[in-house]
Amino acid sequence: MSNSLDDVVSGALGVLDTHGLEFCSMRRVASALGVQPSALYHHVPDKQTLLALMADRIVADVHAPVDGSREQRALAVCHGLRDAMLSIRDGADVVATASAFRLGASGIESDLAEVLGDRDGARTLLLYVFGHTQATQDHRLASAVGVLEADPDLDASFDRGLAIVMRGLAD
């Protein structure tokens, strides 16, 4: 049975969630799908393209709501993005990397820029969300393996920082 592009992306996300980004190789994805690594290249030309597709899948359901104030809509995007990235191990690393290198087709930055009326403001918000979410994922992983104690304030600190960034953008 041959795999589709959707199967390849799903397999890659499964490997990512199980092993983390550091060990999410084309060889490991191929093994998870029961194929030779060369079979993946029928669907994606390289790992960067696969990472972009993974990032797009992670954030696929994140969209700016049509109702509410500009601030409410921007906050909804930021919270939706954070939740989506936290839903899979190293999701923030994948999405942040794809965004930094302008890989993939995700429209989150454009959606946020449209909501705010400010492309630089949208990028600033995204960088905050990426950074805080990456730190949260790192902390949760370290806590899960007993290196650090769990920090029950991570969600609240995200909201406090987000409010500060939003105030800065309003000025």
Indicate the CATH class of the largest domain. Mainly Alpha
- Quick one: CATH superfamily of the largest domain? Tetracycline Repressor, domain 2
In total, the number of strands is 0
- Measured between the Cα atoms of the first and last residue, the distance is 57 Å
| Number of helices in the DSSP assignment | 9
Low-confidence stretches: none
Order of helices and strands: HHHHHHHHH
Mean pLDDT: 94
CATH architecture of the largest domain: Orthogonal Bundle
Task: Give a quick account of the main beta sheet: strands, pairing sense, barrel closure.
Answer: none
**CATH fold type of the largest domain:** Tetracycline Repressor, domain 2
The percent range for strand residues is: under 5%
Secondary structural class: mainly alpha
Gyration radius, rounded: 17 Å
Total individual domains:
2
Helix content: 55-70%
Shape: globular
List its traits.
171 residues, 69% helix, mainly alpha, globular, Tetracycline Repressor, domain 2, 0% strand, Arc Repressor Mutant, subunit A, 9 helices, 2 domains
List the helices and strands and how they pair.
Layout: H1 5-19, H2 26-33, H3 37-40, H4 47-58, H5 70-86, H6 91-100, H7 108-116, H8 119-144, H9 154-170
Helix pairs in contact: 1-2, 1-4, 4-6, 5-6, 5-7, 5-8, 6-8, 7-8, 8-9
